[in-house]
């Protein structure tokens, strides 16, 4: 055996011997704790108490919503009979007449622009400013952090759509007692209009058809979340990125956010894949069987299908105009067919144009940026030329 080979074989055998000795010596030591230690068991009575508390809280919250509707029913009938010039306002908690008059003024200005002809379904905005824990120990605390809650027309209240916003959001600044002058119209219009949410569509265009209502109930709440059809160009339609840098060179965190927040149909829509934009907006398998009942905006972004989806129906209403959007809203055909009947465009084509208008276009697949590909190709050619030159100098004979 050659001397060099003997040294390599001996070194390998020595390394194996050291590893074996280390394994034998360390086998008697303390074992490492498990990576995922078992969670402590929860007593059965504690789990049952938690379940009952959740049911109690849900029942109490729903009772509060129904009590709001009952309190507003007579006022809603009177407002509709008078032409519906402004959404109704109810402040559940401390407020001054001047504050309520100021907010009613904002609501009136919004509605004159949104639905000059008045509302077809009465819209009521409730600002919940009541205290957290109740005075009585028999009543649960009022939940916070649940977003805006909506109760849509049903057999008990056919002509009233209710929006309940908590004081912990933008309303707190509005009712701040230290405020001595009106806030800017732009800021107030934004949170008040967004609080109206899908109820604004009900007020301006009535109860949707059976098919459109089924789409909203199964998939479309997020698309009607921010009604702004009367203010062109309003809203933030996409996610933030450094527009001075091409999308292909955005940081990894940006791409991680993109792929973690959107379903694949949404990503493919921004990449221009045929058929994917329609699939991101309308999924026949997700369509429910009835009209919407209640909805909360709590953690709505976990189910968003496109960035800027909260403005989708508002942009559609602006593009179609009142008459054609009303034709879409009341069409008793599937949502994709209703868009085609009202606009003359397929749902996929209209949504693709809408998505491209947001300014974000993706390129999927292994395509490298042209500059990077050119640098890599030049480097490879230089390396190949150097190798051929060196091989030519080393030729024998």
Structure description:
The protein has 397 residues and is of the alpha/beta class. It is built from 14 helices and five strands. It folds into two domains: 148 residues, no CATH class; 158 residues, no CATH class. A hairpin with an 8-residue loop joins strand 3 and strand 4. Helix 11 crosses helix 12. The longest helix is centred in the first third of the chain and has 38 residues. About 3% of the residues have low confidence.
Write the layout of secondary structure elements.
Elements: H1 3-26, H2 44-81, E1 88-92, H3 97-114, E2 122-128, E3 149-151, E4 160-166, H4 171-174, H5 185-196, H6 198-205, H7 210-220, H8 252-261, H9 264-270, H10 276-281, E5 294-296, H11 312-329, H12 335-343, H13 347-356, H14 370-393
Parallel strand pairs: 1-2, 2-4
Antiparallel strand pairs: 3-4, 3-5
């Amino acid at each position: 055996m050659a001397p060099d080979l003997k040294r390599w074989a001996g070194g390998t055998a020595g390394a194996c011997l050291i590893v074996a000795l280390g394994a034998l010596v360390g086998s008697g030591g303390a074992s490492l704790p498990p990576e995922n230690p078992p969670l402590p068991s929860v007593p059965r009575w504690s789990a049952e108490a938690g379940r009952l508390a959740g049911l109690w809280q849900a029942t109490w919250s729903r009772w509060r919503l129904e009590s709001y509707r009952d309190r507003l029913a007579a006022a809603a009938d009177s407002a509709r009979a008078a032409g519906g010039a402004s959404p109704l306002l109810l402040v559940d908690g401390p407020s001054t007449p001047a504050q309520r008059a100021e907010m009613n003024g904002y609501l009136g200005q919004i509605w004159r622009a949104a639905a000059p002809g008045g509302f077809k379904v009465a819209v009521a905005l409730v600002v919940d400013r009541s205290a957290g824990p109740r005075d009585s120990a028999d009543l649960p605390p009022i939940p916070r952090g649940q977003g805006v809650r909506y109760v849509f027309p049903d057999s008990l209240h056919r002509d009233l759509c209710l929006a309940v916003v908590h004081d912990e959001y933008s309303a707190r600044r509005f009712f701040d007692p230290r405020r001595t002058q009106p806030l800017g119209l732009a800021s107030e219009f934004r949170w008040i209009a967004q609080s109206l949410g899908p109820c604004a569509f009900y007020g301006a265009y009535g109860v949707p058809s059976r098919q459109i209502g089924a789409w909203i109930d199964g998939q479309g709440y997020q698309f009607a979340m921010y009604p702004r059809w009367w203010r062109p160009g309003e809203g933030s339609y996409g996610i933030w990125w450094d527009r001075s840098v091409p999308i292909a060179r955005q940081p990894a965190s940006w791409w991680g956010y993109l792929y973690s927040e959107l379903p694949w149909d949404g990503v493919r829509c921004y990449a221009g894949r045929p058929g994917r934009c329609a699939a991101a907006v309308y999924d026949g398998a997700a369509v429910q069987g009835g009209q919407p009942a209640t909805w909360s905006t709590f953690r709505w972004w976990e189910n968003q299908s496109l960035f800027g989806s909260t403005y989708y129906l508002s942009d559609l209403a602006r593009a179609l105009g009142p008459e054609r959007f009303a034709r879409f809203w009341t069409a008793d055909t599937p949502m994709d067919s209703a868009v085609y009947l009202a606009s003359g465009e397929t749902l996929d084509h209209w949504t693709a144009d809408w998505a491209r208008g947001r300014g974000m276009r993706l390129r999927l697949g292994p395509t490298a940026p042209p500059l990077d590909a050119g640098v890599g190709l030049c480097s490879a050619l230089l390396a190949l030329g150097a190798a051929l030159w060196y091989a030519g100098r080393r030729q024998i004979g």
